[in-house]
Amino acid sequence: MSDQPEHAVSTEEEEQLRRHGVEILWPCTQELLGFAGSENLAMAVPSVHALGQIADERTVDKLLSLLENDDLAEEAVVALSKISHPRIEERLLTLLSSSVPKVTAACAGVLWRFANRQVVDKLAPLVKAPHAPVRRAAIESMGHMGLSDALPHLFEALSTGDEETIIASLKALKSVKVSEDDQLIPKLSSLYESIDNPKIRATVVQAFTSIAGADMLSLAKKALRDSNPRVRANAVELIGAMPIPEKLKAVLLKPLIQEGENNRVLGNVAIALAKSELNTSIQILSKLLNSEEKWERASAVYAARFLQSDRVTQWLTTQFTSESDPDVLRNIIESLSYMPSPEVTGCFLRALAHENPLIRIGAAKSLGRLGEHMGEEHRLKLLDRENDPGVISEVVSALGRIADSSRIQVLARFLQHMDLRVQANTIEALAAIGTVEIIPIVEPFLNSSDKRVNANAAVACWNCGSLQVVDDLAKMLKSPNLKQRSSAMYAIGELGVSLKNLKNVRKYLLLISALREDLKRQQGKPQPPPPAPTPVQAPVAVAPPGSQVPAQPREDKAPPEPRPAAPAGPPSFPLTVLEELNALIGSGQLDEALAAGESALAGQPGNPYILFSIAEVHRRKGDVARACEAFERLHQVDREFINSHLLLAALHNRAQEIPQSLAEYFLALKVQLELVMGQIGIGMALLKEKRSSEASLLLKGLVGQFAIDSRLHFKAGKEYLRNRQPEIGLDHLAKAYLTTPTQPDVLLKLGIALLELGRFDEAARVVGRLRELVG
């Protein structure tokens, strides 16, 4: 449940937002429809797949027409099954009688999505179809539906005598709702007694495990004496799951603890007895662990994860230090990942330095599963020294599960890795952090020719609310490069998938906010009537004749607290004058532009817009002195125009007036920060009014322009030190130390600050720590 109720998405709104997202994807969908009819299967197949992911009802006719195409029918069936439309179920049911087995199998395999008795009845004859894929698809689909109507047909499949069909039916039966009147137990017991195939017998016992009633005890006892170890192992699982006294379980299972018994059987016995006889279980596993046969040791450490005991945890961590076989070590790491504790974390950290890359990968995965922040620094060190791409990929993924925005830059450097797996995993890790800061970092990878890299970048931007990524993908679909088109198709399909999961507010908050705001804009909220004509008008975009007016930044709602105007009122925006001046400047008539500007200024003294135009004319004429004078006059009435400061800085620099140039650059930066602070004020006011969706979009825009630097305290501390202000420098370096206590450059500057402030003992300790780290 969300901590912020205003973000909650009702079922009605979820569907509304999904439809709006589908509408945004429509330009891409239209391109995909064109590719879907192509004779080039390399383009047609991925486009049909993407159409299914988007699930736009407007594509149904095209997909239905592809059912007649033998090369695309299977893909079209799968795509259609993901779209909610009344014609689809009927058409797929008709296709069950197709003369093409692969088409029949494809239809049977997806019809479980339309779970009802009619579908079951249509699938029923196929359990005895001559083609194995058709039989398997029909049986599995009936199992997925879980309807009791399927029971007679699944029982019928048990009598076919075909191993694959019987096993598929047994697995399907585990998902079907049954009652006491369905005679499931007698039928399965009869099958067990009548068949010699050990694989089928084992599957029968396994099917009983999902029911595990006490009335199956008789069959379980027989299965314990079966000559096949797989059947015996499944029988042990069945008894372990039964609602019978623990003492009875021990009586039945202890006779299996003998020399020569199969390792899987013994492992299952240890698991089944763990609740009532933990010592016996540990003795079983200990004996297996001392075996020279590595698979017996591997079975022991696999079973250990189900015992959940401090003794077992200690036992496994100790075994890790003495075990040499990589397969057993991987099982140890996997089992320990279910037993979070400081000892386990220490074991994983040691495993990060193992010589076998598969062990390092396993340790990184397990640390990620545990969400262990205490291992974060160790994984960062591993990344610094690691060369194996597989290990780097897993470590980056593990960091993505626990990292916050302070690690964005650390992870981002792996986007430059040559291995595409590393790039793709890095983008996923950045996306998992889930802040708008990642957008400018991952956007360049929209041009990757690798499907997974490209799709991950597109999904990351889309999920962060950057709906414009659709425009980039639409352009890629028109690229002459086959790989780019293919990557775009895959990426667009992934965007479609995200639209089906909008209930997951924590993951898709920014996407939901962006869709909400864009939907409001599309719905055309009524705008207030324009104000009566006055000499004071709001700035408007001006375009040359014959060109299009650029789109204005959209604002669905006015800021809650508009910035108060200056007492004298804002300056007049003389559009007609500026149009004339711009035309003269654009045509090179600078003297005429200057005369017109001075004349207009006489009528509107101190107008900043006219002053800027006059200064710009002087600048273009190369009259530095007069341009500087004009810009200074402008700054007397308006100091919030960044470009005027930047142009004046460049003029001072050209005249070798370096201090004045630097001063103007600082003033430009000051104006930028003040403008950002004004927008931050708007954002905080939006949050106060519980308008979080709009606030999140504002934040996205700000961070897209000004990335938040997690190392800013360190950089500021260095500057204060360099400028002989160690007290302030220490404050910032201490904050940097809190988040990166093992970063050598932080420790070095922190030690210097302490030394300059006369705190010699502390400085010595910091330097000692630095020596330990760098050697």
List its salient traits.
single chain, mainly alpha, Serine Threonine Protein Phosphatase 5, Tetratricopeptide repeat, 43 helices, flat, disordered N terminus
**Named CATH architecture of the domain at 575-705:** Alpha Horseshoe
Q: Which blocks of ≥5 consecutive residues have pLDDT under 50?
A: 1-5, 526-569
Distance separating the two termini: 49 Å
Number of strands: 0
Overall geometry: flat
Strand content: under 5%
Quick one: CATH class of the domain at 575-705? Mainly Alpha
Residue share in helix: 55-70%
Number of helices: 43
CATH topology of the domain at 575-705: Serine Threonine Protein Phosphatase 5, Tetratricopeptide repeat
Biggest β-sheet description: none
Radius of gyration: 35 Å
Mean pLDDT: 81
Quaternary structure of the protein: single chain
- What's the name of the CATH homologous superfamily of the domain at 575-705? Tetratricopeptide repeat domain
Class based on secondary structure composition and strand pairing: mainly alpha
Overview of this protein structure:
Helix 18 (278-289) packs antiparallel against helix 19 and helix 38 (658-688) runs antiparallel to helix 39 (692-705). Among the domains are: 245-323; 575-705, Tetratricopeptide repeat domain (Serine Threonine Protein Phosphatase 5, Tetratricopeptide repeat), CATH 1.25.40.10; 712-774, Serine Threonine Protein Phosphatase 5, Tetratricopeptide repeat. 67% of the residues lie in helices and 0% in strands. The chain is mainly α. It is flat. Mean pLDDT is 81; it is low at 1-5 and 526-569.
